[in-house]
């Protein structure tokens, strides 16, 4: 695979166009928090909302609006598909693994069992300038999940 | 050391001649991702020819020492080289040597101006400086087309002084709206500041028109000449602007140095911004007297080797002839605009193909983010700029957050443009459009 094919895996290209979670879900009366992240170098931004289940520390939904490159849009979409149903603890562990993989400059082999579709972003870690793109929505979700369960 | 050039002075630029010139730029021979490098990001920063790098090295090998201080021979040689550089760079824009202040870049030049105005507004510089003092009711006018370097310093100055910052809007194509300019510039306008060539739209501003508007109301004019001085003949006297700012690194010279041009009379009256060593005559515990301009504005140890290198870059450009440089870039700019405009789903920003433009073109690829466009091009060794190009207000006015920009210079051939256009035409399909 060329470097470019590693970066733009089919899963990423698909998610960047058929996006899960796009469009903020109404959170009135729910345990929820929103977070905004901005990448000043490219102007990409995301506004993301985490809604928890009523009585449990379990993510009910992740929804978002924003604009950015294919990597950042796909990362937000994959995240919104994977997170619902996870406990906030499980979710934090996933974020940690995702971050470790992205910061590894290609040295960490992704565990597809754990990372699922998010493993498709392993190639991004070789493109240091694009790591931020993939992390943008995940950081927003990490912050929002913490705040919602606080 | 006599400087050698590969081409005869003032020869028209052609692909063959450019191929000769490229031998002066070894960096252009490197590969990127296994492909020959196609460098189309001069709008951000240019490459340096050997003649410029050698000049800097020669200075360090033979003359390096502190300028304007000390009486030993090296110090004299260094001071000569430094002041010769000033004459050379000033002469390039038809300014007197006393009218050129070294700064670290164009951004600092514009900040120098606004901080000096702020000082004047507080009474520093006394009676002479009162013409730069701003206060409530005064207006500073800039344009929506500007680089952030020509926006934020004025925002801060307005905040400091109580003056109001106003903008001449841009049209749907991102061009300065001259009709609106006529109503926005008024008796209250004290400063009119604008770019000469837009780093995004590639348009050339009607300086004559804006200067005449400013003159009618007695406003000071400031020209952001970052994208013009490197690419076309610029004569500040003919243009009639009061101040101008530009950077060396966009014109074949190293980073770290830029300049502010100011009319003699104005620089003499303006209070300094940075203060300290070198810029004074007499210092007591309570006050200091300043050197005459331009030294008054050059506190601390200066960037001597960069000045020397910059002068070598100016000589290189002079050897090519700025008319020839301009003609070649106008040609490359048209090829860029035509090539981009012909690709379905891509919107060209700025003047339409066939209209006058500089040797750069920014564009929006529908459905594909500029970062992704840049990545695909980089895979083929083509270096372009992606993002907001430090012009967020302009992008907002165009309904965009970012764009992609290709910008050419004397070392680009028409084949570079063709290679770029060919690759660009594959981008939308790659992303499934
Ligand atoms: C039009 C314009 N103005 C100002 C600047 C700022 O130049 P510098 O970063 O060298 O100060 C640039 C370069 O990015 C520019 O293109």
From TrEMBL, chain A:
Residues 8-133 form the NIF system FeS cluster assembly NifU N-terminal domain. Coiled coil: none annotated. It comes from the Bacteria. Pfam families: NifU_N. NCBIfam families: SUF_scaf_2. This is SUF system NifU family Fe-S cluster assembly protein. It comes from Rothia endophytica. The lineage of its organism: Bacteria, Bacillati, Actinomycetota, Actinomycetes, Micrococcales.
């Amino acid at each position: 695979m060329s470097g470019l094919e590693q970066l733009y895996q089919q899963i990423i290209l698909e998610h960047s166009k058929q996006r899960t979670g796009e469009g903020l879900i109404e959170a009135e009366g729910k345990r929820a928090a929103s977070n905004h992240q901005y990448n000043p170098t490219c102007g990409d931004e995301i506004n993301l909302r985490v809604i928890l289940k009523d009585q449990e520390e379990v993510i009910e939904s992740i929804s978002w609006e924003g604009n950015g490159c294919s990597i950042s849009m796909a990362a937000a979409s994959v995240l919104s598909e994977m997170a619902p149903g996870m406990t906030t603890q499980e979710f934090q562990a996933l974020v940690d693994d995702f971050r470790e993989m992205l910061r590894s400059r290609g040295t960490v082999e992704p565990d597809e069992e754990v990372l699922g579709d998010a493993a498709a972003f392993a190639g991004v870690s070789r493109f240091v300038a694009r790591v931020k793109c993939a992390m943008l929505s995940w950081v927003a979700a990490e912050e929002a999940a913490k705040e919602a369960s606080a | 050391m006599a400087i050698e050039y590969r081409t005869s002075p003032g020869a028209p630029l052609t692909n063959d001649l450019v191929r000769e010139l490229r031998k002066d730029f070894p960096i252009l021979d490197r590969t990127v991702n296994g492909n020959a490098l196609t460098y189309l990001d001069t709008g951000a920063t240019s490459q340096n020819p050997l003649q410029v790098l050698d000049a800097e090295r020669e200075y360090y090998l033979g003359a390096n020492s502190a300028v304007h201080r000390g009486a030993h021979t090296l110090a004299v040689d260094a001071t000569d080289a430094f002041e010769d550089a000033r004459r050379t760079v000033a002469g390039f824009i038809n300014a007197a040597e006393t009218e050129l202040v070294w700064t670290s870049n164009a951004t600092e030049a514009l900040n120098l101006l606004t901080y000096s105005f702020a000082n004047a507004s507080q009474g520093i510089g006394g009676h002479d400086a009162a013409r730069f003092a701003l206060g409530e009711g005064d207006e500073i006018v800039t344009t929506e087309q500007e680089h952030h370097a020509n926006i934020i310093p004025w925002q801060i100055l307005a905040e400091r002084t109580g003056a109001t910052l106003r903008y001449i809007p841009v049209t749907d194509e991102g061009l300065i709206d001259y009709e609106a300019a006529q109503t926005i510039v008024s008796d209250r306008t004290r400063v009119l500041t604008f770019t000469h060539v837009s780093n995004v739209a590639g348009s050339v501003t009607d300086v004559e028109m804006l200067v005449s508007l400013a003159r009618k109301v007695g406003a000071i004019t400031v020209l952001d000449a970052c994208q013009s001085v490197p690419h076309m003949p610029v004569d500040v006297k003919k243009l009639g602007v009061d101040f101008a700012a530009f950077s060396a690194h966009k014109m074949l010279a190293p980073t770290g140095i830029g300049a502010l041009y100011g009319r003699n009379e104005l620089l003499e009256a303006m209070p300094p911004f940075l203060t300290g060593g070198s810029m004074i005559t007499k210092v007591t515990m309570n006050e200091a007297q300043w050197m005459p301009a331009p030294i008054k504005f050059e506190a601390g140890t200066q960037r001597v080797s960069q000045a020397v290198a910059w002068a070598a870059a100016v000589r290189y450009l002079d050897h090519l002839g700025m008319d020839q440089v301009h003609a070649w870039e106008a040609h490359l700019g048209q090829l860029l605009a035509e090539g981009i405009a012909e690709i379905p789903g891509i919107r060209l920003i700025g003047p339409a193909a066939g209209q006058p433009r500089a040797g750069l073109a920014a564009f929006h690829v529908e459905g594909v983010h500029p970062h992704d466009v840049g990545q695909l091009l980089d895979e083929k060794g083509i270096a372009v700029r992606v993002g907001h190009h430090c012009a967020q207000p302009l992008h907002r006015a165009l309904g965009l957050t970012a764009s992609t920009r290709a910008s050419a210079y004397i070392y680009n051939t028409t084949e570079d443009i063709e290679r770029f256009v060919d690759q660009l035409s594959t981008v939308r399909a790659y992303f499934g459009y």
